[in-house]
Amino acid sequence: QVQLVESGGGLVQPGGSLRLSCVASGFSLEEYTISWFRQGPGLLLEGVSCSSSTDGHTHYGDSVKDRFTISRDNAKNTVYLQMDSLKLEDTAVYYCATDESLRNQPCTEISGTPEDNYGLNYWGKGTPVSVSS
Predict the structure, then answer these.
(1) CA gap 7, 55 in Å, rounded
(2) For a tag site, which of 8, 62, 98, 105 has the least CB within 10 Å?
(3) Rounded to 5 degrees, what are φ and ψ at 30?
């Protein structure tokens, strides 16, 4: 049974840092491209970052580029999101997600819309991040 469990969220002041973790079970993370998404209050689901299983490439949304870093530890079946220089607008629930269609496929294969969860079927329950002074 595929399961994704996020952790590491919390309350942080602007300019602070957090590291989110996403532990995968039921499949080998090494074979799958996996992404972080977020949904802020009243906002649509937004792609944050992606780690490709095929070529090691990483991708970032424009709003988090140069502040967030995605990494993975395949031995621990875990993907991380290091978030630095946090801003008020980073407040959101953060989710990790993947899909059978992303097995041995690059990040560029992720398509779809926020309304259909970007076409991904495996999601964690999310971890909340609140940036506030």
Answers:
(1) 26
(2) 62
(3) -55, -30
- Residue pLDDT, tens place only, 93-127: 999 999 999 999 999 888 888 988 898 999 999 99
Of residues 62, 32, 26, the one with CA closest to residue 47: 62
Six-digit token string for 106? 């690059």
Q: Are 99 and 121 in contact (CB under 8 A)?
A: yes
CA–CA dist 88, 98 (Å, integer): 27
Contacts within 8 Å (CB) and 24+ apart, 66-69: none
Q: Which tokens hold the place of 11?
A: 């309350």
What DSSP string describes 7-49? E--EEE-TT--EEEEEEEESS-GGGB-EEEEEE-TT---EEEE
The more confidently predicted of residues 68 and 119 is: 68
